[in-house]
Amino acid sequence: MKTFSSNEDWYFLYELRIDQVGVEDRLARITSRSIKKQSKIQGLKLVLNMIDLTTLEGKDTEGKVKQLCYKAQHLADDIPDLPTVAAVCVYPMFVKTAKKYLQGSPVKVASVSTAFPAGQAPLDVKLSDTKYALDNGADEVDMVINRGEFLKGNFQLVYDEIVAIKELTHSYNARLKVILETGELSTLDNVRRASEIAILAGADFIKTSTGKIQPAATLPVTYVMLQAIREYYDKTGKMVGMKPAGGISNAKTALQYLVMVKEVLGDEWLDNQWFRYGASSLANDVLMQIKKELTGVYQGADYFSKD
Fold first, then answer.
1. Considering the chain, what percentage of its residues have pLDDT values greater than 90?
2. How far is CA 186 from the centre of its chain?
3. Are 307 and 280 a contacting pair, CB within 8 Å?
4. Could you give the residue numbers annotated as active site?
């Protein structure tokens, strides 16, 4: 495997060019697909099981995290055969609380780190931030790249920081999601370049966004990231996960993402070990759609707990 030790090693990234018209044409075909009723219910349940139920606000409290953990395990007790969500995602300060209230459940505890959401801090601070989350029991870490250094062309620094965080998470047997913050990368070419760096540095998942910048997750951005994962898998046989986050708030859009994953990566990725949604409000819309498919009656959001 090629090793990287200076910015000169990254010149190949400048040769990467994305055919935006081609991406849009492919997505037009994917999003026009219709889904039969039974497949739709199965798909919606799969979406629920892929959600990282998230609260990342300055007003977060232990009480709010406790409530979110309960919801993660009891999405709607009156609907049969519902799964749990995949994970609850919180700030490092609340990892211990989430771990306590998710004990005995399959729901993972994910923590943001590395001076989330800006990532503007020295590496030792980012490592300390991450270690705090891991020491308190985080199963997964969602780190942010330094977009300023990336946009300056300092790809080596971005790579080195991911490698350092990966080594730490690996020592705790935790999985690492690398957030690109695609809304700040400006172009699909840059999204592909950042995806390559994160994958080569050892990311277990690549993730679109923090949810703090608009635009957040979009279908074109996610498609480009999926293509990077596909090509890496074809070359190495190693799977990398994908997490679109921010702005996915309705079931119809979530299902379009699933169809896209199936088309680009295949059935192996249709599992929460390899695909996640970062969301705070998506679960309720999915629950409303499941209820409608099962009963024929569309229920409002007031029938389900607030996230």
1. 87
2. 19
3. yes
4. 142, 207, 243
Biggest CA pair distance of the chain: 60
> Per-residue pLDDT tens for 44-85?
999 999 999 999 999 999 999 999 999 999 999 999 899 999
Q: What whole-number distance in Å separates Cα of residue 86 and Cα of residue 300?
A: 24
How many Cα atoms are found within 13 Å in the side-chain-facing hemisphere of 276? 36
The radius of gyration of the chain's CA atoms, rounded to the nearest angstrom, is: 19
The CA distances from residue 279 to 80, 176, 289, in Å, are 23, 18, 17
Q: Give yes or no for a contact between 50 and 269, defined as CB atoms under 8 angstroms apart.
A: no
User: Is the pTM higher than 0.70?
Assistant: yes
- Whether 225 and 206 have beta carbons less than 8 Å apart is answered as yes
The answer, yes or no, to whether residue 307 has pLDDT greater than 70, is no
Closest CA to 140 of 99, 108, 107, 97: 108
Return the CATH superfamily for domain 18-27+36-303.
Aldolase class I (3.20.20.70)
In the block, tokens 């971005």 appear at: 158
- 36 pLDDT band (50/70/90 cuts)? confident
Measure the CA–CA gap between 271 and 257, rounded to whole angstroms.
13
- The verdict on whether omega for the bond into residue 117 sits within 30 degrees of 0, i.e. cis, is yes
